[in-house]
TrEMBL record:
This is U3 small nucleolar RNA-associated protein 6 N-terminal domain-containing protein. It is found in: Nucleus, Nucleolus. GO terms for molecular function: snoRNA binding. The lineage of its organism: Eukaryota, Viridiplantae, Chlorophyta, core chlorophytes, Trebouxiophyceae. Keywords: Nucleus, Repeat, rRNA processing.
Length: 662
């Protein structure tokens, strides 16, 4: 390695001498450069060289080149270019070459090299890099596109650019995604070529797409130039004029996007059922701006959408937005909605309803007139979707959001509950319904408080006391009944949705209600399911419920709750951690309601029996409790039970050693 590095450093002597001679760097600076290059070369020559090592070397040489250019300008260094003016760029290329030889599969590295070639105007080098990259990655659409763009932009060779795109399409014919990208870029290429032709003719002062003032026009001026004395056509004279006319017509068709249209037709033949693929052609046309012939291409695309994709929601959405005029907002909404209604009558689907609702919601974003009418239409469309069985989660969520938009909280809550009933297996809908029910209950409570503050009579609600968390809950009002009913209905509809259960507990606690009303339903779910995981799952739900009951009611009520759950399949590890947290906190506080030590040990034993194979944290807690003064058995028996029970005891053993528990 050392010999190779020394050989490379010796080869730098001529360029270093020239850099000093030209005044770009001092001898001391070049000494530091050599030292840095030596460090980089040793890093690059090791067998385990990393891509980051190459990038650091490239960054160093690039910064040197930038400094050289800056000093050349600042110091006014001129004259004939010598080795010093290109040696640093050449060295960067050398490092890139070595890097791509080792990391040939890194497309980002190839892209960086190509960008460096363009930045330093290394045209011939860029051609070689592209050829090598395409040989290694023939199915990379970005490389083919880059190569074609290089030919068009740098060499002004449209024919070579077309040939590269066609070669890329042949290479990528088995890769649908790469082929689709190439078809789109090929279409863009032909539109760019046509735009350049139009710009060139405008610059030359040739007006008209067909070349007004050209041979065809002059033929019209001469009148009898193509007839003989008898008035018969003179074929010899008409030949050149006809050819010129045909050439002008062909050129006019090219400038109108004729070749681009042929490319588009060939592309659509390859992917006839993909609306998104066709939509991309429309986007490219939009990016190109207005030109003669664009409308015809767009109409052909829309006609193909109607003929080839009569059941595609995306196709109907594109057609609806195309039908909406850009003038009056009401007319645009009406025209687009008319297209959607035709689609819903012909091929109703959840996707089409979603597209129609999204169209109306987008129309509501501005300050367009008729917003109330549009909002009512959108709500009605959401209702129709749900009743027809085509309501997606997003559409039904939008329904309640639209009602909230007009400030109708109670109406939004009613709509959310109706929507959840239409799609009962969607927890997102129940979560929205529950949150809105809480908001309605909070608004009602605030209204009652305001009435009390103003001296108006209000209905009082009794509050009995006791230990049973369900029977002793405060007597609820009608609004409270609605909230509790919404929570129970939600968890019954999606009994295995952890997030929905946690939200139900959270909402009941926030509203001041006893979350213990969920106990019976939780028991049903746990009895029908397997043992829960160490983290998350129904164990997290049971843990949240135990904590909430202890907070809202009392530790005694929480004990009754977890006692009823202990004999079912274990909810999960978090449940046992929550139970032990509560009991150990009571023991530390010494409030007088704490459990005796044997019963806490029994809880630990039940917890490790249920989850002792995976839950090392539970064993560590057990060890800490057993290490407290007054423990009879000590930590030894617990330690060996844990080592035998855990599937991976190494972490447990390490923690015990760190805490000196064993």
């Amino acid at each position: 390695m050392a010999d190779t590095v020394r050989y490379l450093l010796e080869g730098m002597v001529p360029e270093l001498d020239d850099l000093e001679k030209r005044g770009y760097f001092s001898r001391a600076e070049l000494g530091r450069v050599v030292q840095k290059r030596q460090e980089h070369e040793y890093a690059l020559k090791r067998s385990a060289a990393r891509l980051a090592d190459y990038r650091r070397a490239i960054a160093f040489e690039t910064s040197l080149e930038e400094l050289r250019v800056a000093r050349r300008r600042a110091r006014g260094l001129s004259g004939k270019k010598t080795l010093a003016d290109h040696c640093l760029v050449r060295r960067v290329h050398f490092i890139y070459q070595r890097a791509t030889r080792r990391f040939r599969g890194d497309l980002a590295l190839w892209g960086d090299w190509l960008r460096f070639c363009h930045a330093t105007r290394s045209g011939r080098r860029a051609s070689r890099v592209l050829a090598r990259a395409l040989a290694l990655h023939p199915r990379c659409a970005a490389l083919w596109t880059h190569a074609a763009a290089w030919e068009l932009e740098s060499n002004a060779d449209a024919a070579a650019a077309r040939a590269l795109m066609q070669q890329g399409l042949r290479a990528c014919k088995t890769d649908a995604r790469a082929a689709a990208a190439l078809w789109h870029e090929y279409f863009r290429l032909e539109l760019l070529v046509a735009a350049r032709l139009r710009a060139r003719r405008a610059l030359l002062g040739i007006d008209g797409p067909a070349g007004a003032g050209g041979p065809a026009e002059e033929q019209g001026k001469t009148g009898d130039a193509t007839t003989d004395g008898a008035g018969h056509p003179d074929e010899a004279a008409a030949g050149p004029a006809t050819k010129d006319s045909e050439a002008e017509a062909a050129l006019a068709e090219i400038m109108r996007g004729g070749i681009a249209r042929v490319v588009m037709r060939s592309a659509l033949a390859q992917a006839p059922r993909d609306a998104a693929f066709r939509s991309r052609f429309l986007d490219i046309l939009q990016e190109m701006g207005e030109f003669e012939g664009r409308a015809e291409i767009e109409e052909e695309i829309y006609a193909g959408l109607a003929a080839d994709l009569p059941e595609s929601p995306q196709a109907w959405a594109l057609r609806a937005r195309h039908a909406a005029p850009s003038g009056d907002a009401r007319d645009a909404i009406a025209a687009g909605l008319e297209v959607f209604e035709r689609g819903l009558a012909a091929a109703p689907s959840p996707g089409l309803y979603s597209e129609a609702v999204e169209f109306l919601v987008q129309a509501l974003e501005g300050d367009a007139p008729g917003a109330d009418e549009t909002l009512a239409t959108a709500c009605e469309l959401c209702r129709r979707a749900g009743e027809a069985g085509h309501g997606s989660v997003q559409v039904l969520l939008t329904w309640s959001q639209l009602r909230l938009r007009v400030g109708n909280l109670a109406g939004a809550a009613e709509v959310a509950r109706t929507a959840a009933g239409m799609l009962p297996q969607a927890p997102e809908l129940w979560e929205t319904s529950l949150r809105l029910a809480v908001a309605v209950a909070a608004a009602a409570s605030a209204s009652r408080d305001a009435e009390q503050a103003s001296g108006c009579p209000t209905t009082s609600h009794g509050d009995s006391s006791g230990d049973d968390e369900e029977a002793d809950a405060p007597g609820p009002s009608g609004r409270d009944d609605a909230l509790i009913g919404a929570a129970l209905e939600a968890v019954r509809a999606c009994p295995r949705s952890e997030g929905l259960w946690l939200l139900a507990v959270q909402c009941l606690v926030a509203a001041g209600h006893n979350p213990g009303v969920l106990r019976t339903q939780l028991e049903v779910v746990l009895a029908q399911g397997p043992r829960g995981p160490t983290e998350g799952g129904m164990g997290a739900v049971a843990a949240a419920l135990v904590r909430a009951v202890a907070l809202v009611r009392s530790p005694a009520a929480a004990r009754k709750l977890y006692a009823s759950l202990r004999h079912l399949p274990s909810p999960g590890g978090e449940f046992w951690h929550a139970v032990l947290d509560m009991e150990l906190e009571a023991a530390r506080a010494g409030r007088g309601d704490e459990l005796p030590r044997p019963r806490i040990l029994a809880l630990f034993e039940a917890a490790v029996d249920a989850h002792g194979q995976e839950d090392a944290d539970m064993w560590v807690r057990y060890m800490r409790y057993s290490a407290q003064p007054g423990s009879k058995g000590g930590t030894g028996s617990v330690y060996w039970k844990a080592v035998r029970a855990l599937q991976r005891p190494a972490g447990f053993v390490e923690r015990c050693q760190l805490e000196r528990l064993a």
